[in-house]
Amino acid sequence: MHHDALSLKNVHFAVEEIECLTRFLPAIVKTCKDVSVEHSNFTVDDLRIFVNLQIEMSHFRLLDSAKDEATDKLNGDLLQIVGRQFNEIDRNSSFGAEIDHVSPESVCDFLKSWLRASNPFFFNLSVFNCDMVWMTRFMECCFQADLQHQYFEFASKTHSSAHVKVCFSEVNNFIE
Predict the structure, then answer these.
(1) What is the C-alpha separation between 27 and 94, in angstroms, rounded?
(2) pTM given for the model
(3) C-alpha closest to that of 15 among 45, 50, 52, 48
(4) How many CB atoms are closer than 10 A to CB 10?
(5) What is the spatial distance between Cα 85 and Cα 69, in angstroms, rounded to a whole number?
(6) Which of 95, 96, 103 is closest to 74 using CA atoms?
(7) DSSP bridge pairs for 157
(8) How far apart are the two ends of the chain, measured CA to CA in Å?
(9) Do residues 44 and 74 make contact, with C-beta atoms less than 8 angstroms apart?
(10) CA 59 to CA 64: how far, in whole Å?
């Protein structure tokens, strides 16, 4: 069985149904490149399967679903897996992620991995619910990690033409 995408949008399962579904998720998501969970009642533990399988994803979207404190950790772990893939996988494709919550430290570590990658691939990371406090912490993390930038543009350490541009919308509490 081969699945390219898994999308769960506006689905709310009873606890028993989620327990049953999580038993089948590993078989379903093993080959998924595009995973989207929006406005659903899964917990972070239910979604941890994506981290545990270390799937090579092209797109991950987790919005308005897992709301407990471990969401930052889950999203940080997913970014860490993709960060490792920057050097482990010879990828001609791109990666995209849209997430509600992640720590500034995790985004900084992700950025650091990309900047040092021998074969950096295109990515688009959108993080929602980031206020000025989040952005200040992010800039402190970048400073501590010695990540130099010009107007939030970070140059790759290995490719002179590759760079990452960080855009912050204070009005929408959003970075991209």
Answers:
(1) 24
(2) 0.77
(3) 45
(4) 8
(5) 26
(6) 103
(7) none
(8) 35
(9) yes
(10) 17
Report the SS3 class of residue 40: coil
Among 102, 99, 95, smallest CA distance to 117 is for 95
Half-sphere exposure of 73 (CA within 13 A, CB side): 9
- Exposure string of 63-97, with b = 16+ CB inside 10 Å and e = fewer, is bebbeeebbbbbbbbbbebbbebbeeeeeeeebeb
Given a contact cutoff of 8 angstroms between Cβ atoms, the answer to whether 130 and 168 are in contact is yes
* Site of tokens 């930038």: 149
pLDDT tens column, 106-162 = 899 988 988 888 777 788 888 888 889 989 999 999 999 998 888 888 888 888 888
Mean pLDDT, the chain, rounded, equals 77
Q: Which domain holds residue 36?
A: 5-175
CATH code for position 82: 3.80.10
Helices (H), the chain: 15-29, 44-47, 49-52, 71-88, 104-116, 132-144
Provide the number of structural domains found in the chain: 1
3-state secondary structure at position 173: coil
Mean pLDDT of 82-106: 75
Phi-psi region of 10 (alpha: psi -120 to 50; beta: other; left: phi over 0): left
